[in-house]
């Protein structure tokens, strides 16, 4: 989690040399395969469906640590991915988090209301969620589906 937080800080401050060095350190970490897999995922080594199973295995392993840890971990990872410019990968990670029961309140949709609740998310996770939410709304509009009467963003 600390690696992801530091990567996000370096990326936010345009300190790309430091971010790449830290990513190399994650990959070289022989003590924890979690750091290695997350580092490789950030680097894009696991984007294929067959390779993504390694990332899912790590996410399942981390899920056993509890909801509080999971929320902090995914927030840190989403923060890093967003500020490193990896928006599609961030969306995929957010999907994995919701699949594992984290952020159950995130997206709700019915005929009347279409809302996103980002009150437990950090900035990178919020941007990722809003991006997915707006893309979903655009797809509904372009496909001719009826849009809900009210769109709501919950931030606190």
UniProtKB/TrEMBL annotation:
The keyword Isomerase does not apply. PPR repeats lie at residues 1-33. Keywords: Repeat. InterPro entries: PPR_rpt (IPR002885), TPR-like_helical_dom_sf (IPR011990). It holds the Pfam family PPR. It comes from the Eukaryota. Belongs to the PPR family. P subfamily. This is Plastid transcriptionally active 2, PIGMENT DEFECTIVE 343.
């Amino acid at each position: 989690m600390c690696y992801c937080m530091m990567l996000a800080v370096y990326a936010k401050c345009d300190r790309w040399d430091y971010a790449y060095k830290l990513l190399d350190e994650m990959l070289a970490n022989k003590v924890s395969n979690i750091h290695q897999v997350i580092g490789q995922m950030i680097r894009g080594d696991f984007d294929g469906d067959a390779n993504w199973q390694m990332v899912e295995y790590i996410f399942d392993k981390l899920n056993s640590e509890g909801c509080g840890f999971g929320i902090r971990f995914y927030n840190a990872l989403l923060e890093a991915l967003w500020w490193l410019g990896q928006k599609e990968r961030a969306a995929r990670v957010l999907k994995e988090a919701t699949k594992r029961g984290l952020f159950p309140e995130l997206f709700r949709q019915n005929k009347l209301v279409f809302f996103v609740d980002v009150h437990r998310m950090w900035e990178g996770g919020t941007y990722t969620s809003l991006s997915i939410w707006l893309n979903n709304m655009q797809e509904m509009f372009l496909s001719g589906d009826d849009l809900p009467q009210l769109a709501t963003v919950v931030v606190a």
